[in-house]
Amino acid sequence: MKTHITIITSILLSLLLFSGCQSESTTDGLQEEVKELQRLEEESGNIENNEDAFELMRNLNQTMKDVRDKILEMEANYRKASENERKELESEFEKANAQINESLQVISENVEPYKDEEQVSQMLNKLQEVMISK
Amino acid sequence: MLKGHPKGLLVAFFANMGERFSYYTMLAVFVLYLQARFGFSAGEAGDYYGGFLFGIYFLPILGGIIADRWGYGRTITWGIIIAFIGKVILTIPGYVEQSYFAMKFELIIIVLALFVLSLGTGLFKGNLQALVGKLYDDPKYAPKRDNAFNIFYMGINIGAFLAPYAATGAVKYILGRKGFLYENSLPHLANLNDKAHPFLDKMIGTVQNHFSGAMHYTDKIQAFQSQMGFSGSVTEFANTYTSTLSVGYSTAFAIAAAAMIISLVVFVGFKKYYKHADLTVKQAKEKAQREGTEDTTVTMSKEEEKKRLVALGLVFITVAFFWMAFHQNGFTLTIFARDFTVSQVSAFNNLFFDLRTFIPILAAIGGLIFMFRKTSTLRTKIISAAVFIAGSGIAYSFYTGFDSQMNIEPEIFQSFNPIFIVVLTPLIVGFFNWLRSKGKEPSSPRKIGTGMFITALGFVVMMVGAFHLQNVTGLSPYWLIGTYFVLTIAELFLSPIGISFVAKVAPPRFSGLAQGGWLGATAIGNLLAGLVGKLWDIVELWQFFLLLVVLTLLSGVFIFSIIRILENATKSSDNQV
Question: ipTM value of the model?
């Protein structure tokens, strides 16, 4: 009985530790989001039907939410930063913004043929408010 | 359902319902209030919310220690009074003029209010459960202890269910007096408008370049401004709206405070119905000595106490895993509802997603059942028929106003749990009564273990849904509703029965502390829910649900593997009542 209890308790606790020990993500500007958008840009070249377009737009919305959250974080740091740090943040943002601009251009062109489909259109509507929603 | 129960149960039921209504009314708008008043992000507001919940669930341990020495009724009464004071303090900042210099002071007031409120709840919550348990130490009532806690638990959920409607009703009323509509997103937009956004503004421009119609926050505020017919600048509108909204939220806190008075009146006014059970071990001995009667309090050896505390500790560990899985409802299951469930349903399906139609439908079904029940009297049948006709009529009148496709909000799924609790409690109580009449009612630990397996089943439904999702773009909402239904059955097997188990097994001199320990285990479960929830973005959907299935199955197996220890603990307590 004791062995039984020990084994099950150990499994429960190790699963608990496994889930609890996930490290917090560190802030790295917008690099992670830029990479994700570049991946979506590449994926958008393979859209074959409405479902693919919908799936892509859903992922795009999620990534743009992450972009928004990071930007708000960057702005909070910007308000407290010294003049030099501000310049660094500005240049970091400009670089990321240019890359995001390129990715969005390709994605919007590839999604264009599907934009009137109901589900895709719903996702496009969501994207229009994603930068200002909570 | 209440036949054969002591009247003290009803007193506890209504006192608890009032307190829980008050608590959830306050909780329904608390985070929104912090965001509207102080411009907090979700994360910042979450820190206050998390700290508060930590206090709410851990301070009952302190409350239990106090009550085990000082007396349950007295501690509970002071708990209600202190929680009332906490809620009154919370209402203050919203009613005063907002200014930058007052903000830090206002935050100090909020923190003070939360501390006082947590302390009051800590003195109240676990000890009321302990007092209900003591009512059932009487051998006449002891066999109905599990049922009693099922009924008591229903009171919690009725209070919790009604609370959000009271809170939003108060907010809408205050806004309406100034010609405003309740618009949840406006405080966030107003906060954005309040500061310069060099990066966000540019990024909005970038999105606008490629996706026409992408909005700026000032456009959105302006749209609301013209909808509400407010003249003046965007900033004036935003500021007036948020300060009115703060008053609305504070009014909801005031309603919460008022509900505590009702709870106090019920608890103090009907004291005679529980007074006989409201005794600590020391007080019972003193009373017996004073009155020259036999001392009926149970004196336990240290060894017996240790055995029982070990049994309780084992249940607490396991139950933390239940709450971990169950409290995914406000977290990952809501994200699932938002991202993977269809956002529109037909008018017919919307009958079950709109509370204005769903509740009348449930009432109509209830009326129908009582109309045709053999044991119903003529009077009951007439009332039931009236309820059926009224329920059907109300539901139909709203139904005719529905569009062919209706939007459903992800938060609406959380309303199903309290509704299912209220609907399913009489059925579960009836089921256990039926089993008892046949001499087959399972012991409390077996019910808890079974509840764990039922929880696993609930997440199996989600796992199958996650597999199905690979073939469709959005799941039918009935997958989630099905899961909530199964999880609610599990909850009814586990949570009220667990409280009953604690009341039964706790050594008499630690009754309050043990109930505090139960709530502490719930707090750990809540904490684990957040930790496990972090895996949501890391693993596949089906893997996430599989993890919950495995954890709850293992917890169930664990309970059954120590069932003899747990049943021996309950048997020894049964022998002593």
Answer: 0.81
Query: Distance between CA A106 and CA A122 in Å, rounded?
Result: 20
* Distance in angstroms between the alpha carbons of the first and the last residue of chain A: 52
- A28 forms beta bridges with A30
Contacts of B361-367 with C-beta under 8 Å, sequence gap 24+, read: B361/B391, B361/B392, B361/B395, B362/B391, B362/B419, B362/B423, B363/B387, B363/B388, B363/B390, B363/B391, B364/B388, B364/B390, B364/B391, B364/B392, B364/B395, B365/B391, B367/B391
Residues 94-133 of A with CB under 8 A from B: 97, 100-101, 104-105, 107-108, 119, 122, 124-125, 127-133
**Closest C-alpha to B319, from B494, B487, B490:** B494
Closest residue, chain B, to A21 (C-alpha): B531
For B77-92, give one letter per residue: b (16+ CB within 10 A) or e: bbbbbbbbbbbbbbbe
Q: Which two tokens stand for residue B270?
A: 């009907």
pTM over 0.80: no
Interface test with B, best of A12, A14, A120 (most B CBs within 10 A): A12
Q: To probe the interface with A, which of B34, B189, B202, B203 has the most A CB atoms within 10 Å?
A: B203
B394-433 residues touching A, CB cutoff 8 A: none
Render each residue's pLDDT in chain B as its tens digit; 577 residues.
Answer: 667 899 999 999 999 999 999 998 998 888 888 878 887 776 677 778 878 888 888 899 999 999 998 899 999 999 999 999 999 999 988 887 766 557 788 899 999 999 999 999 999 999 999 999 999 988 888 888 888 998 998 888 888 888 878 888 898 899 999 999 888 778 888 888 888 899 999 999 999 999 888 889 999 999 999 999 888 899 899 989 988 998 999 999 999 999 999 999 999 999 999 998 888 877 877 877 787 777 666 677 888 888 889 999 999 999 999 999 998 876 788 778 877 888 788 899 888 888 789 889 989 998 998 898 888 889 999 999 999 999 999 999 999 999 888 877 766 777 788 889 888 988 898 899 899 889 898 999 999 999 999 999 999 999 999 988 877 767 888 999 999 999 999 999 999 999 999 988 999 889 899 999 999 998 888 888 878 887 887 888 899 999 999 999 999 999 999 999 898 887 765 555 4
Contact B562 A5 (CB under 8 A): yes
Task: Tell me the Cα Rg of chain B.
Answer: 25
